Amino acid sequence: MTEEARKTPRVRDLPIQEELKTSYLTYAMSVIVSRALPDVRDGLKPSQRRVLAAMRDLNLGPRAHFRKCAKICGDTSGNYHPHGEQVIYPTLVRMAQGFNLRYPLVDGQGNFGSIDGDPPAAMRYTEARLTRTATECLEDLDKDSVDLVPNYDETRQEPTVLPARFPNLLCNGSSGIAVGMATQIPPHNLGEIVAGLVALIENPEITVDELAEHVRGPDFPTGAIICGRAGIRSAYRTGRGHLTVRSKVHREEARGDHVHLVITEIPYQVNKTRLIESIAECVKSERIPGIQNIVDESDREGMRIVVKLKRGADDDLALNQLFANTPMQDTFAIQMIALVAGQPRLLDLKEIVECFRDHRIEVIRRRTAHLLRLAEARLHVLEGLLIAIESIDEVIALIKAAASVDDARAGLMARFRLSERQAGAILEMRLARLTGLEREKVQTEHDQVKDRSREYRAILADKNLVLEIIKEDLFELKEKHGDARRTSIEAAVGEFQVEDLIAEENVTVAISHLGYIKREPVRTFRAQRRGGRGVRGQNLRETDFTEHLLIASTHDYLLFFTDRGRVYWLKVYDIPQLGRTARGRAIVNILRLKKNERVTSFVPVRSFDDAHFLFMATRRGTVKRIALTEFSRPRPSGIIALRLADDDALIGVEMTGGDREVLLATRGGQAIRFKETNVRPMGRTAAGVRGARLDEGDEVVSLIAGEPGSHVLTVCARGYGKRSPLESYRLIRRGGRGVININTGTRNGPVIGSMCVREPDEVILMTANGQVVRTRVTEIRVTGRAAKGVRIVALGEGDRIASMARIAVEAVAPVGGEENAAPAAVDAPDEPEETNGIAEADESAFGAGEAQESE
């Protein structure tokens, strides 16, 4: 070591920020250029290119015998890609998978994985060879058509890019994640790409939109359907776009009036097993209630996933729900980034096609120049042979007289003015060439090589001839490898909300005392005459009973108000729809309730406008009015709606228009009626003001928003009730004791609740034991305000009325205004009264007559 080297420090102090920046930039560029992004010319990444080069070295052409993949990966690793066979094998496998590549480059034998997500067999078990498509990419590689560079250990040469007569980047696509960027180029149909290239060659000024008339859109190996052309246009114009891809589905009629949805094609890169699991999960979680079973009948002939629907299920609705909730509809994000001259660039369709055209021009010119050099070299030799043949006697004499080969060569060069190469060829010429036939062959070959040389020079001198060669190659490619389009392009599906997939209908929402919730169509319960015993409702535990019943539309929001003054949001269609006798789903599993918090009131809301208010009442007689817009931003964890005292609870919430009359009914049979304008609007956290002065031990049980011309229906625990005109309740100011609502003696029991009804309406009442009675309001006669009432429900031993709800025929805006009213129920026709007063138990008895079923 020199003295100067010893003085040079081996350790240098560097700013860590600068070193990290430099090192990371080096790493990033290595990933971008040498690993993750394809070259725009051949559409391959370095690892893919090296695998194909290694297979070519092994002479694994389309007609060759298959070789073990372990051998291929070993040669690739040892000769070109020193990263281990285990990382090379996945690259080889993907190039053999027909569900990943539109035109596979490797012909695999054995288990190379499946669209189900099954992994390939180990490389010691599988075999492979090149496909005809791959040979198109490798053709002319030995004709100096592309640059060759030393491999990693400089023992051989490897190509920096393949000649690629086949437009691989667009036909097979590519995907990769680099540092700070990613590429996702979809596959296309070869015939369309050929048409686009030819159009570009014939008209270099062609626009992207004109080019897109030839290249209709991506063509995925798994088929499926592209919905709309907006994403295609965006991707072709800018290099970025999003495609909505749907599975191909058809309907089949099955026995028993069942309908099957049969899936035969799925979106690109969607795992079939995960798709089936996703559908099963949606069925299990009741997001798609119409599905009965899922069967995978796929075989060697193709894909076939059968989704069996329940009898009577809406197949259009079920299909839309599948598209909305499962990977049967997927989004393919296009990002056409590729390496151009070693630099990553975002390219539009025309730029990619131009880059391929320019690459082919360079390849053909380099190949032609190489062939011209070979032809001229051969022509030079043939000219020497012809000279020797013409003077063969003198040549033979000169050679015989020479003392050595070198003397003979020098003599020939001097006597006939030949080059060293020509003289060497004459010395190596066999005597058989001296026959007349052989002399003629040499002359014929000379003329042919001279013609080829002339042709090569013409090609190099005329770009149009090069372009004609490219066109001929493309037409030949299309003839040999072209096939029909697999992916169809259909009209765009409209932007839809989840509500568009849900059938809108009136449903009953029932919640039990112990917190079980469910919904079911209103038509499940048929109308009966007064005094009937009803049909079986919720099948509850002995200690549970149905406490709340609400009629709402499936498209409504449902605001859940709890006894602690908090409010939660839920779409009605998100409430599980269960059978008539089902208990329901625990509400604590649906809402994020606080500990010991119970839901006491529900308000269906279609839209949150500024013209409506929520009017609240508590058990201790406190009332509050708040603008509906205060609740327009749903939060899963809920928000405060009313500040309560520790011994108080929220018992009711009503939607109002700002000028309604409200009525508070108490358990002891009192009622107070006043205008809502007596209560000023307040903030969410306000505690409210006094609405009713209560007697000792009494409490408010119902809050009613009065409707002009309506009646107040009051029901007591022992099945008795009455209907009285709203006007019979004297209008006073808030804060008073009110007037008598109903006589709550031993026969009636305490008041369960009061509600505002009209004559066309129907009422559903539920008992503590789960019995359900649906009756018309007209079956309950109008009585005086202080009357004891009539029997409404014939209760069983120890049973009592637990809750009640109205089915409004002429719907008065229950939520968010008249225009947001839920669909009205249809009044059912009279039916013969049953002798035992019990409704039939079979499904045919659950409708409310032909009129309601037709709705």
Number of contiguous helices:
19
Distance between the termini: 100 Å
According to CATH, the homologous superfamily of the largest domain is DNA gyrase/topoisomerase IV, subunit A, C-terminal
- The helix content, as a percent range, equals 25-40%
Oligomer: single chain
What this model shows, in words?
- This protein has 855 residues and is α+β, with helices and mostly antiparallel strands.
- It has four domains: 44-163, Alpha-Beta Complex (Topoisomerase II, domain 5), CATH 3.90.199.10; 248-327, 2-Layer Sandwich (Gyrase A, domain 2), CATH 3.30.1360.40; 358-481, Orthogonal Bundle (Topoisomerase, domain 3), CATH 1.10.268.10; 502-854, Neuraminidase (6 Propeller).
- 29% of the residues lie in helices and 24% in strands.
- It is built from 19 helices and 41 strands.
- It has a four-stranded mixed beta sheet. Strands 10-11-13-12 form a four-stranded antiparallel beta sheet, with helices on one face.
- The longest helix has 42 residues, at 349-390.
- The chain starts with a helix and ends with a helix.
- Residues 810-855 have low confidence and may be disordered.
